[in-house]
Specification:
The structure holds two protein chains of two kinds.
Chain A (H helix, E strand, L loop, with lengths): L1 E12 L2 E7 L2 E3 L3 E5 L6 H9 L6 E6 L5 H5 L2 E4 L11 H11 L6 H9 L15 H13 L5 E5 L7 H18 L2 E5 L3 H7 L2 E6 L2 E7 H7 L2 E7 L2 H10 L6 E5 L2 E4 L6 H10 L4 E8 L2 H9 L5
Parallel strand pairs in A: 4-8, 4-9, 6-7, 7-8
Antiparallel strand pairs in A: 1-2, 1-3, 1-5, 9-10, 11-13, 11-14, 12-13
Helix pairs in contact in A: 4-5
Chain B lengths: L1 H13 L1 H31 L11 H7 L1 H22 L1 H6 L5 H35 L13 H26 L2 H29 L10 H14 L6 H25 L3
Helix pairs in contact in B: 1-6, 2-4, 2-6, 3-6, 4-6, 4-7, 4-8, 6-7, 6-10, 7-8, 7-9, 7-10, 9-10
The chains are: A alpha/beta, B mainly alpha.
């Protein structure tokens, strides 16, 4: 089932396109990692989806329905930073959200606070919370309406490493146990790579690529990284004696070979025969971060 | 809509500024009516008259300070709206699939209810000093003014018009500081209009006065009229001007709130 489908979604500020003819698709159960630099159009796209901003042109459907306001009631959102009444306690802020959602089950307030580890904060006002506690409260508030689709813009901002792991595990648990669909944007690409099942890369308002995370491994070429004494001479040897042309000199002591059919032992012995000292040979693999950088530079991995 | 109203009332009663403004209004009203009652009593005593009973009119006292009351009520409405933008909590509401019009109208209705609570505060705090000043005399402490319902309806109409203007300013500007400045600048605009009228009279030699169509000018008419019973002269204008301001500001405020990004 399609949770979100956008059709040429565009947002123009004055004459500049912040988002340009965006076509993305999120299916039920996906954890969609939305990647892009600052100002790439991630937040603008998310704002259009959740109703904070009107598209200049194009359209989208939520849960297969073009009446998006109905669909928005099934969405939980944290956009940029979670927002609260700072002079109220966590429970009072949750109560406001509970009233907004017209929820009947009041016990869910305490359940959600416990779920995110804020069950014991008592009468402490939200303005005295740490950033991590605020992020957790924001997620508790989004979960209160039993949403079918979570839209999270930088949910791990300001969290310590333990907090990041806790949020990741919470989201994975919700996805696994409740088949919750999640759209998540984050700058921490290593985190996204562990979480996302599907990835979309946006740059200058244009969705450059959209793929399943398994595809990333196929798309990212593995490479052999050599650290040696004389890169110029080594380059000559690779070309003339070993007939390897797909390589790159990274710096004065490092060469990367992208031909994965070559034997590292033969390379080592050939270089040694030519009096080139090989300090190390290692296999490296491009990760999501590297792949992303390559894509937005217009190159291949 | 009912859920939005519930949330807005909850927020209103949990906001410090609601009580601070209420306290300021109550204290100012109490002081105003205390000095007013004392002045009336002193003038009667100085004249050496025997006073069998003294008539004091709390309602007139409220009207005597109507512009000040309305400024504070406008201040409350502006803060009530702007705090949603400054805290970012407007995002929590707007992403829940409510129509923007409903969100704006809910703020409007709850601000009106808040203002009526303030009027109640003012009435009570205006009455108490009267009791204190003239309570030991054989007096008729409180007398309902003539045309109470009509006067009260007009008072509410002006308050509603000013709330609508304030919410329009708040939804256009969204920042508390500048919006508050806007509220305080509003009465000055009437002064500028008056200057413009004088200029117009000198240049075109016309009797038309734009000032007669400002809210401030009509508030003065209302205040004078209440003292006399009911503004009989130009009553229609005194009613129509706030209605026009209310409709136009509500339409502009709604349109901006609906179409602008959050």
């Amino acid at each position: 089932m399609e949770i979100l489908r956008t059709n040429n979604l565009t947002k123009t500020y004055r004459s500049k396109n912040a988002v340009s003819n965006l076509n993305m698709c999120i299916n039920k159960g996906d954890i969609y990692g939305f990647i892009g630099k600052n100002g790439a159009g991630k937040t603008t796209t998310i704002k259009m989806i959740v109703g904070l901003s009107k598209p200049s042109s194009g359209s989208f459907t939520l849960f297969g329905d073009s009446s998006v306001n109905r669909g928005r009631r099934k969405i939980g959102t944290v956009i940029e930073a979670p927002a609260f009444m700072p002079n109220l306690t966590a429970r009072q802020n949750m109560l406001i959200q509970w009233k907004l959602l017209n929820n009947k089950n009041k016990a869910i307030i305490d359940e959600m606070l416990k779920l995110v580890g804020l069950g014991e904060v008592g009468k402490k006002k939200v303005k005295n919370f740490s950033l991590g506690m605020k992020q957790r409260l924001g997620i508790a508030m989004t979960l209160m309406g039993n949403p079918e689709f979570l839209v999270l813009d930088e949910p791990t901002n300001g969290l310590d490493p333990q907090g990041i792991v806790e949020i990741r595990e919470l989201l994975l648990k919700l996805n696994r146990e409740q088949n919750l669909t999640i759209l998540i944007s984050s700058h921490i690409l290593s985190e996204l790579a562990r979480l996302a099942t599907r990835v979309g890369i946006i740059h200058d308002g244009v969705l450059l690529e959209e793929f399943q995370i398994e595809e990333l491994n196929k798309r990212c070429k593995s490479r052999l990284q050599l650290v040696l004494s004389d890169v110029e001479k080594a380059a000559e040897v690779l070309k003339e004696q070993l007939n390897i042309k797909d390589f790159n000199i990274i710096n004065e002591s490092t060469i990367e070979i992208y031909d994965d059919t070559v034997d590292s032992g033969i390379i080592n012995s050939t270089l040694a025969k030519n009096d080139i000292v090989v300090n190390s040979i290692s296999h490296a693999h491009a990760d999501l971060e590297e792949y992303f950088l390559n894509v937005i530079r217009g190159g291949k991995s | 809509m009912l859920s939005l109203l519930k949330v807005d009332f909850y927020k209103m009663f949990r906001t410090k500024s609601f009580y601070i403004i209420g306290l300021i209004l109550s204290v100012l009203s109490a002081l105003n009516s205390y000095f007013y009652a004392k002045m009336v009593l002193d003038s009667v005593n100085n004249a050496g008259n025997f006073v069998s009973y003294l008539t004091v009119d709390v309602f007139s006292a409220i009207f005597s300070n109507l512009e000040g009351v309305i400024t504070y009520i406008s201040l409350f409405a502006v803060l009530f709206m702007c705090v949603e933008f400054s805290n970012g909590t407007i995002k929590n509401i707007a992403t829940k699939g409510y129509y923007r019009e409903s969100i704006y109208l809910s703020k409007f209705i709850s601000s009106i209810v808040g203002a009526l609570i303030y009027v109640l505060f003012i009435a009570i705090s205006s009455l108490l000093p009267y009791l204190l000043v003239v309570g030991n005399k054989d007096t008729k402490i409180y007398e309902m003014p003539k045309h109470f319902v009509s006067c009260f309806s007009l008072l509410v109409l002006y308050i509603v018009a000013y709330i609508s203007l304030s919410l329009m300013i708040a939804s256009l500007i969204r920042k508390s500081g500048i919006s508050i400045f806007g509220v305080f600048v509003l009465p000055l605009i009437a002064g500028l209009v008056s200057v413009f009228d004088r200029f117009l009279k000198n240049v075109v030699e016309t009797d038309f006065r734009l000032y007669d169509y400002t809210l401030s000018s009509n508030i003065y008419s209302l205040m004078d009229g209440v003292r006399a019973g009911l503004p009989s002269e130009d009553l229609l204008r005194v009613i129509l001007i706030p209605v026009a301001f209310l409709c136009v500001s509500l339409a502009i405020g709604l349109a901006f709130f609906k179409n602008r990004d959050i």
